[in-house]
Each structure stands twice: as C-alpha cells, then as structure tokens.
Amino acid sequence: MSTLILLLVTGVGLGGLYFLVASGLSLIYGLMGVLNFAHGSFLTLGAFVGLAAAQAVGAGTWGGLLLGLLVGALTGAVAAALTELGLIRPLYNRHIEQVLVTVGLSLATVALFEGIWGPNPRNITTNAWLSDTTELLGARIPNTAFLNILAAALVLGGIVAFLKHTRYGLIIRAGVENRSMVTALGIDVRKAFTLVFAVGGAAAGLGGVLATQSLNYVSPHMGASLLIFAFIVTVIGGMGSLTGAAVASVVVAVLQQLANSYLNNSGDLIVVLLLAIVLLVRPSGLMGRTA
What we know:
Number of strands: 4
Helix content: over 70%
Radius of gyration: 19 Å
Mean pLDDT: 85
C-alpha cells in the first residue's frame, strides 16, 4: 500500500512538471495555432540561468531557491517573447515554416547550451528540505513532489485568474474562440500573442528550475526530454484546453509511474499507447473542441 501511495503522489508531482510545460503549449496553440517545438529551450535556458542566480545567493538556501525560480521564470518569459517577436510573428498562417523554424531553433539552442555549459549533466545542490522526504500514509514521499504540485496549482490558478479577470485575458479567450472576429473589432491581437508566449515561457522556465530540484542535475537536453511528454499531454488533454492539459498531465504521469513500477519500466510505451487510443477514439482530446 505504501508503494502505491508513493507512486501516486510522485506521479502527481511529475504531472505538475508536465503541466508547467504543457500549459504554455496549450495556450499558444489555442490562441495562435502555433506548434512551438522550441518550447523546451525556454525550460532549459530558465533552468541554467535560474540556477546561476540561485548559486549567487546560495544554492542550498530558501532565498537562493526562490531567486532561482523567479529568475528562471523571467528568463523563460523574455526568451519566449523575443522568439515570438523575431521568428514567429512574420510566419503567422505559414504553418510549415513555423514548424521548420521552431524545430531548427530547438536544435540550435541545444548546441548553444552545450557550447556554453558543456554537454554533460551538472549535479546541483538543493536545500536540506528538498533533499528529504515526508511520511504520508506510510510512504516516504520526496519533498520535491509537494513543491511541484504546489507550483503547478499556483500557475494553473494564476493563469485561470489572468484569463478570466483581466482585459488581455478576455482578448485571449475571445481569440481562442474566433481570432478573426477579434481582429475585425479593431483589437490588436498581436500584443496578446506576445503576452501568451511570455506567459508560456515563464511557466516553462519555472518548470525548468523545479525539474533540476527533482532530478538533482541540469542538462542541455532536459528541455527536449520533458517537451516530448508535454506534447503528449497537450494532445491528450485537447489542444488549446488548459483544464485538459492539467487533467492529462496527472493521468499521463501517474500512469507512467505505475507502469514503470509494475510493468517492467514500460511507462513510456503505455503513455504512447494511451495517446494512440485517444487519437483514435476522440481526436480532439479529452477536453478539446470537436469539429
């Protein structure tokens, strides 16, 4: 029983990391129809820069961690906004070019990160609490899982509040439903596009710093690894559905943990099979809009 509790809670914690990446992908696709394959680069850059900021204060302290999370989020937001302004904006409604540019950017940034920080993973220092565990119903749960769950819940609540209670949130929600109508009303949706990219990049950068705390290392390839599952989560949840991304993140991560433990490390295979089933039975995803 304790093993099952451990797998369930750590699965939800892993789902929190998936959601932090998938939320940006879902928002970006929902408003702009852009599949951003460079989204993992925002995560990796946020992780490296955030950790550098944390080390300047003290990587093993709470102050260092909080500064690292803040700087990581800001770095991801700035990188995403610059990407939208410089590379994506000239290519709206040109989907093949968007895919080629973002895939190329993702490959180029991995090479850039390897050139700056080296190709090998770097071990990091976490504070004492994050290195410890907490007993829950007889299971010893890594404290990083609780931090991931808290961060994902705060980000989900923050994005939902932003979309429902701000002017730009209203423009974004209207743009998801009918972008042409919003433009016809004289509203400059381009600012909303940049803002959505920045919000998604901030969530990815935050997720990058949190991922390093869970994995105890940072690597130029960590963003690409998490991006694969974030895309799976986005498709299963429904492209453009933030709630769907949240639900799918938990389902995918918990299923992955259970399969790895009870089915001989077959978690990745089970997740891909789930993706195939969802695409066959409900191509729009669990909470996506049907055609």
